[in-house]
Amino acid sequence: MSTLSRDELRTLFLFEKLTDEQLDWIAENGTIEEYAAGTAILHEGDPATCFYVLLSGTLRMTRLVHGDELEMVRTDQRGSYCGATQFLMGQRGEQRYSASVHATTDLTFLSLPAAEFSEWFSKWFAMAAHLLEGLFLGRRNTDAVVGQRERLLALGALSAGLTHELNNPAAAAVRATSSLRERVAGMRQKLAMLARNDIDPDLLEQLVDVQELLVKQVASAPKLTAIQASDHEDELSDWFEDHGVTDGWDLAAVFVPAGITVARLEEVHAAVGEAFLNTALRWLGYAVETETLMGEIEDATTRISTLLAAAKQYSQMDRARFQWIDVHDGIDSTLIMLSGKLSHVEVVKEYDRSLPAIPAYAGELNQVWTNLVDNAVAAMEGNGKLTIRTGRENDRLMVEIGDTGPGVPAELSQRIFEPFFTTKAVGEGTGLGLDISWRIVVKKHRGDLRLRSEPGNTRFQVLLPFTEQDQETEQAE
Hints:
By secondary structure, the chain is an alpha+beta fold.
């Protein structure tokens, strides 16, 4: 095919400053290619072998987004270029076309072989080539290092929060166990006292029946306000005083939370009589305290189990990387993991439980929920209302995370998904949280991540497909 002369090449802005020798190389190695209107010239994802410069006609450049063809550029500017635009990086690994190019009208290209052009470009402009390569690789390495740091910081924060959350129930269980040991010892002592007094076996059996009745009440005892509890304690203390029971206020503090009323005390009195009342009440008090302490230990250990189950669900350490999941499980486990940061935040869940399971990388979606919730809490400065909604939008599942913070200014809303862009103060954020989230949602799951923001109502919407997508480009870049 024919090529261009030096003078013709200099009319293209890319080549106007080249030397005669450089122009001669382009003339010798470049070819003129003509395409009819409607022709697909390049295909997104194919190996990038050629660098194209537009000589005449109109082209349009497209990319596939969620399976739909999205037009990125349409131009008839002579000298516009496309194809292997990162040819300088060709020696660092195989490059692929990042977009498809179509001929809108009949058009003509100057085509250059990317590998050879890269080699000669590096010779002609050695310093510029090194700088460009350094910029490209430096940015990629920085992304990797800071991204890893971002993940480590998030892991550290989650680990610290989980440790704090585990410490509370663990400490409560230890305290309750220590107190339980003392109460059991007291029960043995009071039981021995009753035995030494030669209590009638029938009376002892009746006392045991009363004990079982009181113990069963502990779990179902109504929750009282401080004022209600104080009034009930006064009532029981008066009863104890009337019946000659010493330190009745101490017993009242035990019986009131267990839901024991004066009517129950009268039953005990009727069962054991005045002579054994004091000892019997002490014994029953130990029994009630023992049951209460065992309830505290059960609550504490259940809380620990719940936290560990949430951590397991969050990390997905025992699950396949790609699986069918219920997104609500991951969201709930994330909220538990971040509960330390949510202590002063009102969390509202508006879940559509009729939504089906979706195919996803559960562990990576949990990272998305973490980033979005953490950003929302930071925007509200730890105080406000966090609303999490799930629903359906056409053929995709939607998770919306909203906050009542000041919002994202319109002039910044287009930049928040850029790597290293952050509205936080220097040193407080890496600017990669939303970029990583976008890559996980859009690149890896073929979904979409959108922002809707106004003061007092900022919402990030994550859209995920209900069906399995082509996994050829699943790896997040």
